[in-house]
Amino acid sequence: MTEKDIKKSLSLKSHKNTGTKQSKATTGSKNVTIQVRRKKIIKPDSLVKEASSTPVSSEIEIKKPTETLKKNKIKTEVSKPKSQNKNLDQLTSKKKAKIDKDEKMDKFDNKELHLKEPKPKKNTNKVSTKSDPELISQHQFEKPTEPIKKEIEIPESITVSELAQKISMKSSELIKVMMNIGVMATINQTLDQDTAMLIVDELGHTASSIKESDDEEMSLPIDEIRADDLEPRAPIVTIMGHVDHGKTSLLDYIRKTKVVNSEAGGITQHIGAYRVTTGKGNITFLDTPGHAAFSAMRARGAQVTDIVILVVSADDGVMPQTEEAIEHAQAAGVPMIVAVNKIDKENADPEKVQTELGQKNVIPEEWGGDTIFVRISALTGEGIDQLLEAISLQSEILELKASSKGSAIGSVVESSLDKGRGPTATVLVQSGTLNKKDYVLVGKEFGRIRAMYDEFNKEIVSAGPGCPVVITGLSGTPNVADQLIATNDEKKVKDIASLRESKQKEIEMQAKQKTFSIDNFNLNDTSKKKIINLLIKSDVQGSVEAINSTLYKIKNDDVGLEIIYSGVGGITESDVNLAASSDSKIIGFNVRADSKAKKLIETNQQDLYYFSIIYELIDHVKQLLSGLLEPDIKEEIIGIAEVKDVYRSSKIGAIAGSIVSEGVIQKDQPIRVLRDNVVIFEGELESLRRFKDDVKEVQSGTECGIGVKDYNDVKPGDQIEVFKRTEIKRTIQ
What's the confidence (pLDDT) of residue 395? Predict the structure, then answer.
């Protein structure tokens, strides 16, 4: 077979296979190259045109031997493509069925279909989607036009890395966003719920708060209360009012005791709970402090009470704490009985009290309102019986009932650390019966009741609804208003208490890891705020909370305080060591330091202060803070002299011949030199003369000679202003 025959044979085969074509052939001594395309099914009429322009997907090279090669060699080279041509024939037969469909689709241009020109693919074994708009639409992706917004649930605490995971964002990018809004935090730092929600909102997502549920706590076994088990109970009455309006004196008269005499300063320092038997039945009284520092305690008292007795002095009228007590009672939705006290005084004016309370939306029944007003005298006992009748009437209207069966549930009224008994808690039983040796869960504390005492310090074995009792055997002093739950499941009680303890530690740790604001990194502010560190110990938990809340309300830009530690019980050696390491002042409220602590305090020469009245403690802390304040400097212009002429002296220098136009020129006061009402020098006088005599001061309208220390550029027309600086001591209000 000649070279010409080979060329014709290959050309015929390429035209038979619609999926192949001859692209190039050369004669002579040059190589023969045959290119075969498999990718595209094309029309016969466009075969020639596309042959030169379409890229090849695969190629078979047949190289003709040179002149030095023999014909048998040529036969070997040409025989190789035959097997490949068989495969091409198979592919061509499979694709013939689709030619008709492709011809129909070829009527539409890609531009008419609004499709992008697909790029040629190297894999020719796959079916081409260039002519199929449905396949193209399925496999092409469009970039989102708007960012995806998520609804993020934020727990009570969350780390930066956890928040980044919820948002589907890199931690480093999230930290950058936080820095832009003024929040500085590391990847492992814990964020509070409010801060995390602020960050989520800033990123355009929707934030929702969730409260971590305590599964163990929810499974705590509590007996169900049946309607058949409900029975009438004694009302819980809270006595509220302003300081020294006679709250404790009223309760004292009812109890026929002298409780008021045992209170420091004649005021109640903490909540007292008392069960009183009267002719109208049993009544449980809660005596709350009237001082402003005990607002939180009064608020808790209003939450556990059935009836509020508002004691108002007939001679003083409505006072700040009176208004506050009204707000607590109204917020709690508790009915109120107003006891207008001290009607036995000469300047008593009960009508004025009614008018003032009427302005606070406390309307007497005689005026068409729903509030009972009773005029009493806690000193003489006048009107006390009418007050008890009003309490009994109001309790009947309320239909107060509770079940004495089942697990006891109550609220902590007060807690303390007794040296002999250990942690104690005054608990008001609200339902069920609390028994000695019961396992109880009180906030994050737990224990088994070792002993129970009534308000007269008599040991009892059980207490029903409405009874206030003092219990011992707890693991620690609970917080005021913590709920008590009695159960027989010791393990469950310990587990829940441990869980609450860990949560409390996490909260405290989070508080220490305060998120820093960019405002705290003001490089231009070189001043430092002076801080006083305090360590506070008190006899009861309620007083601790009242003291802390009041002290933290003291605000000042230059000084502040930090409570390093506060707790219940006497001052111990460990307290003194902690105060020494933190440079803290020790404050004892109704507690004392033990012998070891006293010796250590003397050795270290530490500051220790004892108090029994809360407002004396607060005033003392304010004095300590006031001592750190820099005094205010007040400047007062006392005289002005006008320079008429300047004389030169070899010994003294420039002497300004002046006349005093205003006030007095004094030699020992600072001065300013003014030129055209602009201060050009500030210093002091070197000499002040009247003629040839040195004088200490020159009165207005008198001529004098003035020498300015370290300044010789005084000119006629200048003014010499003499002023006086006065230091004004600053105090914390």
Answer: 87
Is residue 428 in a domain? Answer: yes
Say if residue 94 is in the same domain as residue 33: yes
Q: Which residue has the tokens 């009064």?
A: 298
Q: Is 533 a residue whose pLDDT tops 80?
A: yes
| Whether 661 and 547 share a structural domain | no
Domain boundary among 605, 628, 651: 628
DSSP class per residue in 8-33: HHHHHHHHHSTT--------TTS-EE
Q: Which amino acid is at 137?
A: S
* Separation between Cα atoms, residue 469 and residue 487, nearest integer Å: 17
Bridge partners, residue 33, by sequence: 61
Decide the pairing of beta strands 516-517 and 183-184.
Answer: antiparallel
pLDDT at 282: 83
Confidence of residue 164 (pLDDT cuts 50, 70, 90): confident
In a domain, 192, yes or no: yes
Q: For the chain, how big is the Rg over CA atoms in Å? A: 48
Of 667, 689, 680, residue with least CA distance to 719: 680
Which residues, listed in sequence order, are joined to residue 653 by a DSSP beta bridge?
A: 649
What's the number of domains the chain is made of? Answer: 6
* 705: exposed, middle or buried (Cβ count in 10 Å: 0-12, 13-18, 19+): buried
Residues 6+ apart with CB under 8 A from 472: 418, 421, 422, 423, 424, 449, 450, 451, 452
- Tally the C-alpha atoms within 13 A of residue 201's C-alpha that lie toward its C-beta: 10
pLDDT tens digits for range 212-234: 554 444 455 566 666 666 888 88
Contacts of 170 (CB under 8 A, 6+ apart): 164
Whichever domain contains 429, its CATH number is 2.40.30.10
Report the distance separating Cα 588 and Cα 700, nearest Å.
Answer: 60
The reply to whether 522 falls in a domain is no
Question: If we measure between CA atoms, which residue out of 473, 476, 500 comes closest to residue 486?
Answer: 473
Domain that holds residue 617: 530-628
Ranges 221-235, 320-334, 487-501, 672-686: which has the least confidence: 221-235
Cβ 493 vs Cβ 439: under 8 Å: yes
pTM: 0.56
When pLDDT is cut at 50, 70 and 90, the band that residue 204 belongs to is confident
Burial classification of residue 617, based on how many CB atoms lie within 10 Å of its CB (0-12 exposed, 13-18 middle, 19 or more buried):
buried
Instruction: Based on the fold, state whether residues 10 and 25 are members of the same structural domain.
Output: yes
319-339 per-position pLDDT tens digit: 888 888 888 788 778 889 999
| pLDDT confidence of residue 113 | 47
Q: Are residues 655 and 615 in the same domain?
A: no
Domain boundary among 628, 643, 671: 628
Same domain assignment for residues 26 and 127: yes
CATH of the domain at 549: 3.40.50.10050
Whether residue 622 sits in one domain with residue 553: yes
Residues 415 and 480: beta-carbon distance below 8 Å: yes
Contact 334, 300 (CB under 8 A): no
Residues 660, 599, single domain; the answer is no
Spatial distance between the Cα atoms of 131 and 127, rounded to a whole number of angstroms: 10
C-beta separation of 255 from 247 below 8 A: no
Q: Indicate the length of the chain as a whole number.
A: 733
Query: For residue 218, is it within any domain?
Result: no
Whether residues 4 and 117 share a domain: the answer is yes
